[in-house]
Amino acid sequence: MSPDKKPPPGRSRGDRLSPGRELGRGKFAVVKKCIQKDTEKEFAAKFMRKRRKGQDCRMEIIHEIAVLELAQCNLWVINLHEVYETATEMILVLEYAAGGEIFDQCVAEREEAFKEKDVKRLMKQILEGVSFLHRNNVVHLDLKPQNILLTSKSPLGDVKIVDFGLSRIMKSSEELREIMGTPEYVAPEILSYDPISTATDMWSIGVLAYVMLTGISPFLGDDKQETFLNISQMNVSYSGEDFDLVSESAVDFIKTLLVKKPEDRATAEECLQHPWLEQSDNPACRAWNKSTEGETSDTIQKDADSASEQLVDAEKTGEEESIVTEELIVVASYTLGQCRQSEKEKATEQKAISKRFKFEEPLLQEIPGEFIY
After folding, report:
1. Domain that holds residue 132
2. 83: helix, coil or strand?
3. What EC number is given for this enzyme (predicted)?
4. Is residue 156 in a domain?
5. How many CB atoms lie within 10 A of CB 293?
6. Which of 19, 55, 76, 362 could link 339 by a cystine bridge, Cβ 3.0 to 4.6 Å?
7. CATH code at position 212
């Protein structure tokens, strides 16, 4: 934008974001800390390549944006602030979670690792976030310590669920079968190419709880082949010194989730009623539950339902849908996926998105691009 040109209505040059240090990097994305110049508020900017292995993946990024839109009223899902687009990238400006990944505490020495009371509080928040997603027919499909952030490390803050790149919308009229996820956390039905459901997320939450409580990954083998074999054969232990400080109730909680048959696993709502979580040790958690009851809860649910309808409208692409994710897991190999969409699907989704996103002039000073949301 030239110095003489006015910013779009409702925005000022002070809204510009200045990118800073790198926070993380993946195969197709880089996350950098950035600061809003007029307020000095911190955000995390996720730079996502639109072309991956020669394929146009813009619509997959739009899907991730739509899911974040849907969950904007949920406390435990990362908040989407703005979206920009350049010729080669889309940039998601997200809430900054200063505490980083819970993975760091999961692998820390015992004195620095999570205490069970901490895991109870954080797990309840994770389940409330996942329950919200499941009520709106969204499955995350990549729940792991690296995708659960903390608002602060010391004192221990609240969770923020991130990275919806593998998420899918569950449609009652069709079965979803895809091979995706992270080896240690994938459910047996993914390895056997059986239908994916909300129960697939619940398996991952069981693995997550195990890791948070013990610091040990229950199915991890010397290689991917052994890891997959451990999962398919249910080779998991609940004894030994790793469980010396873990309560029987916590072990029982994990056992309700690490069940081979998806239909036999506890749902997110059922988990929230489990004796291990029923009595919260954290007053703030109880206060949040109380504040979201009654009229407030109704308001939130109405907002969620409205957002869900918009998302479903944007996701409707006819009877056929073929979206392949970044990471594919097969028993014999671990390869990168490609983005595939028919021209009909692209046209339908683009029409829906054009109604929801407003294109404006670039506002990132150091990063030229269009502000689109």
Report:
1. 100-290
2. strand
3. 2.7.11.1
4. yes
5. 9
6. 55
7. 1.10.510.10
Section 176-194 average pLDDT: 88
278 in any annotated domain? yes
- As a whole number of angstroms, the distance between CA 113 and CA 108 comes to 5
pLDDT at 327: 31
Contact present, 339 and 322 (Cβ < 8 Å) = no
The answer, yes or no, to whether the previous bond of 155 is cis (omega within 30 of 0) is yes
- For range 215-220, the mean pLDDT: 95
Within a domain: 106: yes
Kindly state the DSSP code that residue 107 receives in the 8-state scheme. T
Q: Would the pLDDT of 10 be above 50? A: no
Model confidence, pTM: 0.75
**pLDDT score recorded for residue 353:** 39
Catalytic residues: 142
Distance CA 125, CA 188 (A): 25
User: Is residue 32 marked as binding?
Assistant: no
Taking CA atoms, 358 is separated from 63, 64, 342, 370, in Å, by: 16, 17, 25, 10
